[in-house]
Amino acid sequence: MTEELLRTAGVRAGYVPSVDVLRDLDFAVDAGQSVGVLAPNGGGKTTLFRTLLGELTPRAGDVTLDAPVAAVPQGDHARLDFPVTALDVTLMGAYARTPWYRRIAKADRERAEAALERVGMADRRDARYGTLSGGQRRRVLIARALLQDARILLLDEPFAGVDRTSEERILHVLDELVAEGRALLIATHDVEQARRWDRVLCLNGRQVAFGPPADTLTAPILRETYGAELVVVGDGDGEEAICAPHHDCGGH
Amino acid sequence: MSIFDRALLEAVLLGAACGPLGLWILAFRQSYAAESLSHAMLPGLALAAIAGAPLLLGAAGGIGVAAVVIALAARDRRIGADLAVAVTVTTVFGAGVLLANTPEIPPKLADILFGDLLGVTDADLIAAAVLALGTAAGLASGHRALAVAVHDPQAARALGTNPARVQAALLVALAAAMVVAVQGLGNLLVVAVIVAPPIVAQRLARTLMAQVVAAGVVGAAGGALGVVVSDRLSLAAGASVALVLTFAALLAVTLRSAGGEQRHARSPIEALGG
User: Which of A92, A129, A135 shows the shortest C-beta gap to B148?
Assistant: First the structure.
């Protein structure tokens, strides 16, 4: 029996009165499921994540979360000139549950070390966050999310600008997290990569489609998702390789 | 206590309080706010001097009025926060200079602008001690929230911290520190004790906690050295403290950039690396 962790029903959200940035959200994610989120720039991906994180109250509809949520942002939003180490940043995942008058619990310190070990960053734990590569920073942010005890993880472009080692390591960790029964939402521009997730959510100001990759990664749906941004490359066999512009098409 | 001892104690307490506070002000890139707040106190100070009221009250009133005007002006989207601060502070400072030049004002304008470390009272010393203790307690208890709010404001809420609230609390603490410090260091020089110690600390220490502590030590040591220098060379005390601290900051920046060229040369490549 599957356990549902997250459900949206008829959700509309936006920032300026009477302008919806995102509408018609109707999807559910089970424990142990990975969802690729495809959207053009300005398609509502950030709005979706902010709504799920509780930072933005939906205008209509319901968001039901049966587990804590954590976000793994693109690491470059963080300040790189600030003197915190990889371990410091990971420990920030325990701040919300540590009262200001207490020290970080020993158990949380051990878990932070284990989380860094898991993302292959144990040997860089004392390195300054700002001196790490983009991929290494992403791995530290995943470790931070692990310490947040979140069963629902929202990953914003976890592979963008990431070196091959980090990409493999991140993929490996994500597979492990899914196997542990967590739910992952992975925003990506890479259509080919979206095929490896259990479900795909296509957004373009509204929910265009939600379902298994085979049903959603079709030319008509992708055209509706990306509109004029879409690049379609024929490969001569009557099949089409499709990708969003400026992004890796997975070798096609 | 002699006048010299009082001045020394006041400078050490103010340096120990303002240095660590300044480290966070710099981390939030709010040194412009610090500069502005200090200028915004002037009319309040001048009015208090004319009325014979404690300067502390005048400074607090001046900052309060300026903060309200800035907040109101910044609400107009066409103006924006930076412009609101710039216009408000310039206007308020101009008004303050006019007030301070009126014949009724007992102390000279120079005392308000540049402070009077040698004239600190028992009340001033108590205020400085309370400020030093309060700042230490506040920064220690808020250390984690401050670190998250600076490092990753976007993710801060999910990590249990409201970055806007943290920043507002820091600015209130800054205003309180300036109100207390202005008596000794003056309206124009008080910024030195906020901004210079963290510049030195950032180059002396590696970890965040070490930098916070170092900023306090540098602030206190710079304050003490400034008072000693002023005593030996018969210079103005507030100006000596400001000069010692800014000279230390300049020295730290120069030495570190000469010795740290290798590190700087690598950073753009690191930034590009995947």
Answer: A92
Q: Does the residue A129 lie in any domain? A: yes
Closest C-alpha to B13, from B209, B222, B236: B222
Test the A interface: residue of B29, B30, B150, B152 with most A CBs within 10 Å = B152
Whether residues A157 and A136 share a domain: the answer is no
Residue B178 falls within a domain, yes or no? Answer: yes
Domain boundary (A144, A167, A182) is at A144
B39: in domain: yes
**Interchain CB distance below 8 Å, B152 and A78:** yes
> Which candidate from B147, B155, B273 shows the least CB-CB separation from A73?
B155
Q: Would an 8 Å CB–CB cutoff place B165 in contact with chain A?
A: no
Among candidates A70, A82, A88 on the partner chain, residue whose Cβ is nearest the Cβ of B27: A82
B266 falls within a domain: no
A to B CB pairs, distance under 8 Å: 80
* Contacts by residues B137-144 (CB-CB < 8 Å, ≥ 24 positions apart): B138/B169, B138/B173, B139/B20, B139/B21, B139/B24, B139/B212, B141/A100, B141/A101, B142/A100, B142/B166, B142/B169, B143/B209, B143/B212, B144/A92, B144/A95, B144/A98, B144/A100
CA distance B54 to B61: 11
Is B88 within 8 Å of B211 (Cβ atoms)? no
Residue A73 lies in a domain: no
Give the CATH number, domain containing residue B195: 1.10.3470.10
Tens digit of each residue's pLDDT, chain B (274 residues): 888 999 999 999 999 999 999 999 999 888 887 888 888 888 888 888 888 888 788 888 888 888 777 777 767 767 777 787 788 888 888 888 888 777 776 656 667 778 888 888 899 899 999 999 999 999 999 999 999 999 998 888 888 899 888 988 898 898 889 888 888 888 778 899 999 999 999 999 989 999 999 999 999 999 999 999 999 999 888 889 999 999 999 999 998 776 554 444 444 444 443 3
> A95 and A220, same structural domain?
no
Angstrom CA distances, B50 to B44, B68, B91, B106, B189, stand at 10, 23, 20, 7, 22
Does A98 share its domain with A162?
Answer: no
Contact A95 B161 (CB under 8 A): yes
- A38 with A156, same domain: the answer is yes
Q: Domain range holding B180? A: 3-254
pTM: predicted TM-score of the whole model, two decimal places: 0.82
